[in-house]
């Protein structure tokens, strides 16, 4: 905003508010004096040079939203001016699915992530919030240390034992140890009589999960 315009636009509302609120001859004289002696307007206290800290936070948030949209551009496979073909991984089947639809439909799905003016998105509230957790972390650790002995090691089991160890402690049998040969086994598939296959190592290997993990862990 131009500095000269800022000076003029701030003078008239302030002087008018003073005149209408107090309604005295003394205030009328002060207002008239201000108008005569300051024809260019008031002098606002505008910070020059480096931006204040709130401006940096706003710029960082806008950059994150612009650089990390709800859907990556790489998911768009084809666009003919009216219809868009894109792919996404389904949360229901955990498979890559392709979809084609009008451009307006895709834009409508994307703008749902844009909040109205004045609204703020809270990703984590309460103790789960990052800033709050950093403050109460020491208190949580102290409380757990005091309660650990009272519940006969329940806190220690939940915090430190793996699912394999908890299962062995509860049933007296190692789920990864073969009951016939005594050799250690690895999980390949988990099947439930009601829900069917709940985990399949072969499908995980086909999706390239291990390959992508190795790439992220590489130099």
Give the gist of this structure:
By secondary structure, the protein is of the alpha+beta class. It has 9 helices and 5 strands, in the order αααβββααααββαα.
Protein architecture, described:
By secondary structure, the chain is α+β, with helices and mostly antiparallel strands. Among the domains are: 3-37; 71-117, no CATH class. Helix content is 49%, strand content 12%. The chain is built from nine helices and five strands; from the N terminus they run H-H-H-E-E-E-H-H-H-H-E-E-H-H. Strands 1-2-3 form a three-stranded antiparallel beta sheet. The longest helix is centred in the first third of the chain and has 20 residues, at 3-22.
Main β-sheet, spatial strand arrangement: 1-2-3
CA radius of gyration? 32 Å
What are the secondary-structure elements, in order, as H or E? Answer: HHHEEEHHHHEEHH
Proportion of β residues?
5-15%
Overall pLDDT: 76
Class from secondary-structure proportions: alpha+beta
Uncertain residue ranges: none
Overall shape? elongated
Query: Total number of helical segments?
Result: 9
- Biggest sheet descriptor: 3 strands, antiparallel
Helical content class:
40-55%
C-alpha termini separation: 47 Å
The beta-strand count equals 5
What is the secondary structure topology, with strand pairs?
Blueprint: H1 3-22, H2 25-37, H3 53-67, E1 76-79, E2 83-89, E3 96-102, H4 103-111, H5 130-148, H6 154-160, H7 163-171, E4 189-192, E5 196-200, H8 201-206, H9 209-217
Antiparallel strand pairs: 1-2, 2-3, 4-5
Helix pairs in contact: 1-2
């Amino acid at each position: 905003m131009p500095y000269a315009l800022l000076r003029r636009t701030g003078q008239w509302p302030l002087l008018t508010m003073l005149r209408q609120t107090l309604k005295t001859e003394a205030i009328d004289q002060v207002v008239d004096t201000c108008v005569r002696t300051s024809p260019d307007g008031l002098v606002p206290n505008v910070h020059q040079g480096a931006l204040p800290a709130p401006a940096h936070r706003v710029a960082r948030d806008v950059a994150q939203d612009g650089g990390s949209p709800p859907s990556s551009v790489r998911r768009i496979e084809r666009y003919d001016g009216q219809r868009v073909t894109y792919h996404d991984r389904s949360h229901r089947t955990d498979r890559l699915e392709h979809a084609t639809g009008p451009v307006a439909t895709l834009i409508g799905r994307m703008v749902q992530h844009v909040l109205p003016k004045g609204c703020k998105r809270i990703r984590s509230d309460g103790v789960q919030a990052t800033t709050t957790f950093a403050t109460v972390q020491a208190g949580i650790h102290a409380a757990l240390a005091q309660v650990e002995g009272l519940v006969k090691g329940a806190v220690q089991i939940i915090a430190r034992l793996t699912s394999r160890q908890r299962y062995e402690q509860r049933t007296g049998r190692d789920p990864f140890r073969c009951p016939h040969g005594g050799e250690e086994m690895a999980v390949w598939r988990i099947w439930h009589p009601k829900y069917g296959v709940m985990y399949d190592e072969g499908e995980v290997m086909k999706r390239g999960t291990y390959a992508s993990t190795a790439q992220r862990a590489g130099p």
